[in-house]
Amino acid sequence: MTAQTSREPVRVQITEGPGYLRADLYNRRTPEETRTFLNEVAAECIKRGLFRLLIFVHSSKPMFTVEKYGFSSYADLAAKHSGRIALVTDSVECGIAQDYVALLARLRGANVRTFRESAAAIRWLIDRRESPDTAKGPASKPLH
After folding, report:
1. CA distance linking residue 121 with residue 15, whole number of Å
2. Is 41 exposed, middle or buried (0-12, 13-18, 19+ CB in 10 A)?
3. How far is CA 116 from CA 46, 120, 144, in A?
4. Which residues contact 110 (CB under 8 A, 6 or more apart)?
5. Is 73 helix (H, G, I), strand (E, B) or coil?
6. Any idea which fold 11-136 has?
7. How many CA atoms lie within 13 A of 99 on its CB side?
8. What is the pLDDT of residues 44-61, one digit of tens each?
9. What are residue 103's DSSP bridge partners?
10. CA 60, CA 17: separation in Å to the nearest integer?
11. Which residues pair with 58 in a beta bridge?
12. How far is CA 23 from the centre of its chain?
């Protein structure tokens, strides 16, 4: 008898906070699931005119092959709208992947930072002062 492995289905929840959009992604396993999520989030940002974004990844597989899910076009969109993107996750492995993604995004001119907890990420998102990331340019240091 072989054991069958089942997994929870991918789930996306997008909510609006005071001055920012929060996008929660649960149980993501594939680049295609990531691409679908990012496309949905980008559409919501444009629709709502909110370009301060908290992305929180839960119970998901780390993704290092960023071009498989269309990373470049998403980073370019973020840079174009001069918003802020805060990345948070619930695992060390995904945190390492998010640090890599944030570095690549900053190199493309996007204002992206990683955080260990959502409260700090939200404080940074709603802070209206110019962030050190913007002032120093794309080479700022990730938090993980």
Report:
1. 15
2. buried
3. 27, 8, 7
4. 75, 76, 78, 79, 85
5. helix
6. Transcription Regulator spoIIAA (3.30.750)
7. 11
8. 999 999 999 999 999 999
9. none
10. 23
11. 26
12. 8
- Residue 131 tokens read as 């962030």
Q: Are strands 111-114 and 84-89 parallel, antiparallel or unpaired?
A: parallel
Q: Indicate the pTM of the whole model.
A: 0.83
* Dihedral angle sign, alpha carbons of residues 71, 76, 51, 142: positive
pLDDT digits (tens, 9 = 90+) for 100-115: 999 999 998 999 999 9
Indicate the DSSP class of residue 112. E
Chain centroid to CA 33: 14
What are the structural domain ranges in the chain?
A: 11-136
The rounded distance, in Å, linking the Cα atoms of 114 and 118 is 10
Structure tokens at 95: 């945190």
